[in-house]
Design brief:
Blueprint (H helix, E strand, L loop, with lengths): L1 H26 L15 E7 L4 E6 L13 E5 L3 E5 L21 E6 L2 E14 L13 E7 L5 E10 L2
Parallel strand pairs: 4-7
Antiparallel strand pairs: 1-2, 1-5, 3-4, 5-6, 6-8, 7-8
């Protein structure tokens, strides 16, 4: 009788552990820590470019989510200039895969820190890739989107100026 009860308890314990493992696998870890912030708290806005079907969240510069392998990345931000970078190509994280399809006059919507702004593409240029980007002094609110060009030694830079909504 004792062996039978012990076997039943072990069977129930393993069933519970298996159920917990399956739920973690399907849902991620459903148990949230009491202290600390969930990862979505570092979201500060989004970028939306309807003409190329892009909608992505933007994260604090200091956030672990603000990495080119995870999202559209904020490289630089002040009151008049924001520089965003992302991968192009065919990979799963190639958020700027259709950036080369943008045309002069296309609309880019940016929401940052609860402020929604519209920008119009004013300049499209391909430059030699150097691993850095020149940060120009801007008097008008401007965004620059940058990614790898079609050739491995090129970088595509899209400049857009803020317009009234």
């Amino acid at each position: 009788m004792k062996k039978r009860n012990l076997l039943l308890i072990v069977l129930i314990l393993f069933s519970c552990l298996f159920f917990i493992h399956i739920n973690k696998t399907k849902l991620g870890n459903p148990i949230q820590p009491i202290l600390g912030k969930p990862s979505y708290s570092s979201k500060i806005g989004s970028i939306h470019i309807k003409s190329i079907g892009l909608y992505q969240n933007l994260y604090e510069i200091s956030s672990s989510d603000n990495q080119v392998d995870k999202s559209v990345t904020i490289l630089y931000h002040d009151e008049n200039l924001t520089i965003l970078a992302a991968h192009s190509g065919d990979g799963i994280n190639a958020y700027f895969r259709h950036l080369e399809e943008l045309k002069l006059g296309d609309l880019i919507k940016i929401e940052l820190y609860q402020s929604k702004n519209n920008y119009v593409v004013t300049k499209i240029e391909t430059v030699k890739k150097t691993g850095s980007i020149r940060i120009p002094k801007k008097d008008d609110p401007t965004i620059i989107l940058t990614t790898c060009g079609n050739n491995s030694d090129e970088q595509l830079n899209i400049t857009a100026k803020k317009v009234n909504p």
